[in-house]
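Weekly modeling sync, notes
Attendees: S.R. (lead), two postdocs, one rotation student

Agenda item 3: backlog of single-chain predictions. S.R. asked that every request posted to the team notebook include the full sequence so nobody has to chase files. The rotation student volunteered to paste the first one in as an example of the format we agreed on. Action items at the bottom.

Example entry:
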Amino acid sequence: MFKKILIANRGEIAMRIIRTCKEMGIKTVAVYSTADQESLHVRFADEAVCIGPPQSKDSYLKASNIIAAAEITNADAIHPGYGFLSENAKFSKTCEEHKIKFIGASAEMIDKMGDKASAKETMKRAKVPTIPGSEGLIESLEEAKKIAKKIGYPVMLKATAGGGGKGMRAVWSSKEIDKSWESATTESLAAFGNDSMYMEKLIEEPRHIEIQIVGDSFGKACHLSERDCSIQRRHQKLIEETPSPFMTKKLRESMGSAAIKAAEFIKYEGAGTVEFLVDKNKKFYFMEMNTRIQVEHPITEQVIDFDLIREQIKVAYGIPISGNNYIPKMHSIECRINAEDIDNDFRPCPGKINTLHFPGGHGIRLDTHVYSGYVIPPYYDSMIAKLITTAQTRKEAINKMKRALDEFLIEGVKTTIPFHSRLMENTDFISGNYTTKFIENYSD
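Predicted structure, as returned to the notebook:
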């Protein structure tokens, strides 16, 4: 087994990886920017190396500094967590060149699945259902108009290098396409340095349901059931749950089989998710594949009693997967707790936490890196904790979440806790009647 793993990340995911490494008897190296000097992942790792100033581009995204930190500490593997360099093909290749194991997808896998247009073509060849749309990238606005007319409005323009909802525009009629094309390409160029676009049929009343998969170096894959990620704000997930209240046994079997087919077709190694849009008639379509661990992985761990980080590490070391497909035994819900002002369009709210009290009790899990007196820096994502409740039924998990949110006290910064508390009282959410448009249509 690996002797020492460097964690090329920060915050709660760095803490999450350190915990599993310690349980496996593996030494850990934390890397940190000067803004994160007082972070818990720095304190709890066996070693820590400063890799630069606060801005991500000068620290957590600076591959040369991270490789240097791995070499001076004699780390034999790097776990990238999620975000930052976790889906960076060049970084994966650089690790390989320096004979450091990248605990994630190979450069070839990331290249194949990271670009949404090429990923869709790959899935077509694998005979996984895909959303009707353009054949590859669209060369011009005129071509976009022809494709939209062919597949029928409404359509969705998407940046091929997109993420976080940037470079995406819903186009409801031919009257809107000129303006939508201009704004989407401009935004994509500014965000990613790439204005290439593709088009898909807009699925109305969609659910966003992902299938957790793990593949090994022997070409085998299994699925660990689904997560419903439909409740989103600007394409950023707020709440996830498993099993999905929309799921049926037949649909799970079909989606699970499609996800395994996708993973085995590309000989995928590691943990990842195959993301689907599911329409109101329970027809599902491949959307994208995330070649990394997901923020919401804890709810899967809770309902099947399975450590996904441990599995990632084992698979990276060359140990085969068990080959089992898993079915949820319980119900689990995750609320992302962000330092944001919900009354000011969810604006980030960095600052010092003056008072902090964590919820506890049976069926409560909290993944976080914050503590009383911790100063939330303004340079990174605003998520400061993930609150997870697990129970025998969905109703019990919701009631447990309501109680846990009431106990969760943070003073000094504004958070999304009040939003989640109100959501747990919402009749549509309680009944499981929601789509990706839920937040847009949500009102108190």
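Discussion: group reviewed the output briefly. The chain has three domains: 4-103, 132-201, 207-441.
Action items: rotation student to repeat for the remaining queue; S.R. to check formatting next week.
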